[in-house]
Specification:
Elements lengths: L1 H9 L4 E16 L5 E6 L6 E2 L4 E5 L5 H12 L2 H25 L5 H40 L2 E3 L4 E6 L6 E2 L6 E13 L14 E6 L4 E10 L12 E6 L10 E7 L3
Antiparallel strand pairs: 1-8, 1-12, 2-4, 2-7, 3-6, 4-5, 6-8, 8-11, 9-10, 9-12, 10-11
Helix pairs in contact: 2-4, 3-4
């Protein structure tokens, strides 16, 4: 009888198994920033890729002529050289006229005329310089538009699926490539509310991968603050470190954490 009582008193401390599933830590579908025709896909399914890596590109050849013209305008120096020469000439005239004016050999009207020529030459030089800056901005704008036709991975991960093919048209809302982050694995489960009352974010729990017979330590990262009324369950997420890629996603698991009192 005493043994039975002791056993019952120990029940709250025993662990309990909860069924769950393993999932990628993060999974995204990459969508191009611009619509267009797929020119190249730089990766294959199963490839591990780095953040910032170009995974595909769309045709941007139609922007190349505009870029060449803008670069030519931006690098052109002829108009600025001519405007500077015109300004230097007008300033030299003004200097000579000022010397004549000091000896009373220059008319006031002629002096005003040359001063106006200097002002016009200065304004013309500013216009030429502004045209050059506008052309430089046009180059940057077109280069930015071309860069928008490259599809760049925002994360490290593995290519799970290539959805489109080279030569196909794609809009700015259609997914092109699916990428999964597997350096960590989320394990999701839906235990009864009563089973989670003593569970806290940050708690360490055990995870058993049923198909592969593997065991791993996990840390609770999410406990849904809202209980599902219909099923009286709570969504729980725990994270398993998977830097060595020992564990697979998409497997059935059991999560083991202390029994709630």
């Amino acid at each position: 009888m005493r043994i039975l009582i002791l056993f019952l008193l120990c029940l709250p401390a025993l662990a309990q198994d909860i069924i769950g599933t393993s999932q990628p830590f993060l999974e995204i579908e990459m969508v191009p920033l611009q619509p267009g025709t797929i020119r190249a896909i730089e990766v294959r399914e199963g490839d591990y890729i780095k953040k910032g890596q170009v995974v595909a590109s769309l045709n941007s050849n139609f922007l190349r002529p505009a870029l060449d013209i803008a670069k030519m305008k931006a690098s052109a120096q002829g108009e600025i050289i001519a405007a500077k020469s015109q300004l230097d000439l007008a300033k030299n005239k003004l200097q000579r006229l000022q010397e004549l004016q000091r000896s009373n050999h220059a008319r006031s009207s002629e002096f005003d005329k040359i001063k106006a020529e200097v002002s016009l030459a200065e304004a013309n030089l500013r216009i030429m310089q502004e045209k050059k800056r506008i052309a430089e901005l046009e180059v940057r704008q077109i280069e930015f538009q071309i860069s928008q036709h490259r599809v760049i991975s925002p994360i490290d991960g593995v290519v799970r699926k290539i959805i489109k093919k080279v030569g196909e048209s794609i809009s700015g809302t259609q997914p092109l490539i699916k990428i999964a982050q597997l350096h960590k694995i989320n394990v999701e489960s839906f235990p009864l509310f009563e089973q989670t009352r003593s569970l806290r974010i940050g708690d360490s729990i055990k995870v058993f991968f049923l198909q592969t017979k593997q065991q791993a330590a996990a840390r609770v990262t999410f406990i849904d603050p809202v209980v599902d009324f219909a099923s009286n369950t709570v969504r729980i997420v725990a994270v398993v470190d998977n830097k060595d890629r020992k564990y697979r996603s998409g497997l059935k698991c059991t999560l083991q954490f202390p029994r709630s009192n």
